[in-house]
Amino acid sequence: MIYRKALLYEAPFFCTFAAMKKLYIETYGCQMNFADSEVVAAILKDQYTLTDDVHDADLILINTCSIRDKAEQRIHKRLRELEALKKKHRALQVGLLGCMAERMKEELFETEPILNFIAGPDAYRKLPELIAQSAAGETQFNVLLSEEETYDNIMPVRYDLNGVSAFVSIMRGCNNFCTYCVVPYTRGRERSRSPQTILHEVEQLLNDGYKEVTLLGQNVNSYQWEDKTFAKLMAAVAEMSPDLRVRFATSHPKDISDELLETIARYDNICKYIHLPVQSGSNEVLKRMNRVYTREYYLERVRKIKDLMPDCAISTDIIAGFCGETEEDHQQTLSIMREVGYEYAYMFKYSERSGTMSAKRFKDDIPDEVKTRRLEEIIALQGELSLISNKRDIGKTFRVLIEGVSKRSVDQLYGRNSQNKVIIFPKGDHKIGEYIEVTVNDCTAATLFA
Ligand code: 5AD
Ligand code: SF4
Question: Residue 355 CA: which ligand is closest?
Fold first, then answer.
């Protein structure tokens, strides 16, 4: 999963009449959560208009993440801050959505009296009822998980106002039960969305002028609908328009099949970027994590990627300090990072989640100072690897999809190349949503300049 900062948003385009109530949504965590918030906005669009001013809201929804303890602590802190608003505005309703709702269920009402209702990730169609019933006084909750819900007939309300790049959720849930991970418990079993509804959504996005879609799922490459594999679905999306870029996230290494790699290689408009979480470079640790692959298998898949697509960027997720991780295991993680030469990595300290297999079976025995030191070494190494990769791009020309105005200066724009690298370049006469060819002339570890 790729993480983004909490985002506040406004979508004035369905503000139809003044009497409508105002909804403020704040989203934490992975891209799936951001996509879900767009589904929630669609479910409530006949009753609420969106606002980006929390002080103005009649309803506040916090879409939450449970992946690590830190993510949950941040949300508890945010709820504390919102208490003052509730004191001022008696009719204000506050609802908590997403993984924390699923993990803690009604227990949350005790620690967080500000909440009027909570809804798990499969309960969003019930939001209008939960809101109406809790407005009458009693707190409400619905945390039922479903084996079918994919919100397939709901056209999400896109709040990404640059109108260039959209998430399209194609499957939900996870069956992998990596021992450290809470996701299979909070998001339930894997289920795929019908290809017809996915293609219809992409067609609408194309009609609305979007230029890039990211096909999303907890394990996007486990997608299966009758005989349609993820590779076939992605090919069908790529064939809709040569001007549409196709990305995907997140892949499990076990499902990164030859068929999928050959499909990515075959289509120019499928981006040459694969997020392939390795988690650890040590076979012992991988086994305890229940990742179901070995270091050797993973490296063979990386070789296959590079053979088929020498220009393909690879990023990863890494956990430092998993239960029983020795110094030697940690060195193996550093060495696999060097061997792959990742373009980018999301790096975390292991955080024990109650109810998971690792919490039940293993001891969280790596002292925090050791986890911190190992994480720092991993981050420092990734900094070097990103810089090496970016320096190799100096002098190369890339096709970039322009996404916005650079934060550094209004005279500069930014976009990403196929490899998902951010490139900043002078504005000239160019506009957001256009493709442009640029030649890289400088870089940092995080950004290319052209
Ligand atoms: N502790 C630390 N990191 C975790 N992740 C998942 N669960 C945990 C945990 N308990 C990381 C993994 C995963 C990413 C989304 O979050 O690296 O790929
Ligand atoms: Fe969690 Fe593993 Fe499923 Fe990813 S594949 S969501 S890390 S259980």
Answer: 1
